[in-house]
Design goal:
elongated; alpha+beta; RNA-binding; BirA Bifunctional Protein, domain 2; five-stranded mixed β-barrel; OB fold (Dihydrolipoamide Acetyltransferase, E2P)
RNA sequence: GGCCCGCUAGCUCAAUGGUAGAGCAAUUGACUCUUAAUCAAUAGGUUCUCGGUUCGACCCCGAGGCGGGUCACCA
């Protein structure tokens, strides 16, 4: 490609002027990409020092020789004086570059473009207009930028570009930056929360030979030297329970799982869950764990366990205790269907159609119940709610209730009409567990449903060695972050959401 | 996958089927307290792609791409 081929392209024109400045720097013997710059202050700290001085808390010397680095987000030329906005992690501060102070270095100012990373040395002061600023005595180019930034005032609004080039979103939209920070803080809170309760954090394989532990279609891949198909895990469940068999008693994994299904505002093909397992407790303890974890995370990152969504939703209060609804009663109340007497799929389908629910003609009993829940019950559960006690048929990994063989000790947590967590008293009877898996395998063939859970022999052998009574939890981190940052789409809480590639 | 909407300068947005424009960014010049700096001038376009209708298409029609919404499915 020759230079003349693109000489008329606007983008090239913009890059060319920056390259021109870059070359001028090189001609001056200046490295446009030096390795280090030692900072004394963040932008925020500099302002604080100034305020401390003004309150007479500190002596004036603290203001001298302040060194700050960051990205240039604004340049206001004033002839022999130029104001430059410098943005770092903590915020933005103004630098005042005066010719009579910088002398020959002042020529460098003309070679600074919007988007460059620069380091400045100088004295903190306040301008006549009251703006905290650095009076620059030395200026260093730390990184020359070759491409223009999005418009300072309107920011980056193009949704697609925000996702594909998230770094631009982070630079120009504070809300995107703050959401990413908050996600990190939430994950950090959860780790501390679990560790303080004596849980061990573990890591189990992402590549598995049987994608088991949940209902989902897996991604498949291939290991060359093993000459074998492998799958990306759809859940961390079974390996974690093997660790309970191994005596770890309290374990959790914060990890990415992968499901080969549709993509929309609630679903990314890879997402993060926390699964935890604790020996010698049942699902009642897990309900308390969820209440404390979620309300604690809210208080930690938002300073409150309440969230105001306004409009018809209003205030969501995450503080314990959450409402507990019996699943069967909830379904009956919201849809009029009482599944307890309905064993045949055709009868259930008829009842559902009577209630105005669209039924897939090839659906299993369990998936139909699931459909009733998501269509008729979930949308009503804005305030945090546990739906408790699920049919055994739709809960192949959960233990039966003591006096009711058809019901399992399982709950799901809902907030804002969306599922947040799924938990049960874990099934540790190896004979029952094997039968449940075999039924799932049979149903998968009968209904040709790729999403039904799979039998993993290794897991069954582990349980046959004896798994203590255990309470287990799975909670969607992305959903939790959406809730606590009030984002309506998962793409706003995942830094690099999956998008189609542009060829 | 069905249906609906969007795609125009680096960014944000205009433009009855009749010469594609503005603000910011860029380039050149003036300016030592500005902060969306100001002022003057200049330059910048495969209107997502391909095809069709038309004397003439950003605009109408068809196919495709990408994105958004919604329904179906899923966490």
């Amino acid at each position: 490609m020759s230079d003349t081929a693109n000489i008329n392209s606007d983008e090239d024109r913009l890059i060319r002027s920056r390259k021109n400045n870059l070359n001028q720097l090189i001609d001056l013997g200046i490295d446009p990409y030096p390795k280090v710059f030692s900072r004394t202050h963040s932008a925020e700290e500099a302002v604080k020092d100034l305020e401390d001085l003004e309150k007479s808390k500190k002596s004036e010397e603290i203001l001298d020789n302040t060194r700050i680095a960051g990205r240039v987000t604004g340049i206001r030329g004033q002839g022999k004086m130029v104001f430059v906005d410098i943005k770092d992690r903590s915020g933005t501060i103004q630098a005042a570059m005066k010719k009579d102070i910088l002398e020959e270095t002042f020529n460098l100012v003309n070679l600074v473009d919007l988007g460059d990373i620069i380091g400045i040395t100088g004295k903190i002061f306040r301008t006549r207009r009251g703006e905290p600023s650095i009076e620059v005595s030395d200026l260093q180019i730390l990184t020359k930028s070759m491409r223009p930034l999005p418009d300072k005032w309107s920011g980056l609004k193009d949704v697609e570009k925000r996702y594909r080039q998230r770094y631009l979103d982070l630079i120009s939209n504070d809300d995107a930056f703050n959401t990413a920070v908050k996600r990190s803080e939430i994950v950090s809170f959860i780790r501390n929360f679990m560790n303080q309760r004596g849980y061990l954090e573990v890591e189990t394989p992402v590549l598995v030979s049987v994608p088991a532990g949940a209902n989902a279609k897996p991604f498949s891949t291939r290991h060359n030297s093993l000459d074998r198909d492998l799958y990306l895990r759809i859940a961390t469940e079974l390996n974690l329970k093997k660790l309970i068999v191994g005596g770890m008693e309290k374990v959790y994994e914060l990890g990415r799982v992968f499901r080969n299904e549709g993509i929309d505002h609630n679903h990314n093909p890879e997402f993060t869950t926390i699964e935890s397992y604790e020996a010698y407790v049942d699902y009642n303890s897990i309900m308390e764990l969820v209440e404390q974890l979620v309300s604690g995370a809210a208080e930690s990152v938002n300073g409150s366990s309440k969230l105001d969504f306004g409009g018809s939703i209003g205030m969501i209060d995450l503080s314990p205790p959450w409402t507990r609804l019996d699943l069967r009663e909830a379904i009956k109340d919201f849809s009029g269907v009482d599944f307890i007497d309905i064993e045949s799929e055709t009868e259930l389908a008829d009842k559902m159609r009577e209630s105005g629910i669209h039924v897939d003609p090839n659906a299993s009993w369990a998936s139909m119940i699931d459909k009733i829940i998501s269509d008729k019950v979930e949308p009503n559960l804005n305030q945090p709610t546990f739906l408790v006690d699920y049919p055994v048929k739709m809960s192949p990994l959960a233990k039966r209730k003591t006096n009711d063989d058809n019901t399992a000790e399982r709950f799901e947590a809902f907030v804002l009409g969306s599922e947040l967590a799924n938990a049960f008293t874990e099934l540790n009877d190896p004979i029952d567990q094997r039968e449940r898996f075999e039924e799932q395998e049979a149903l998968r063939k009968e209904f040709n449903d790729e999403e039904l859970d799979r039998l993993e022999e290794d897991f069954l052998v582990a349980v046959e060695h004896g798994m203590p009574p255990t309470g287990g939890l799975g909670l969607g981190i992305d959903r939790l972050v959406m809730l606590l940052t009030k984002k309506l789409t998962i793409r706003d809480v995942v830094l690099f959401p999956q998008l189609k590639s542009i060829d």
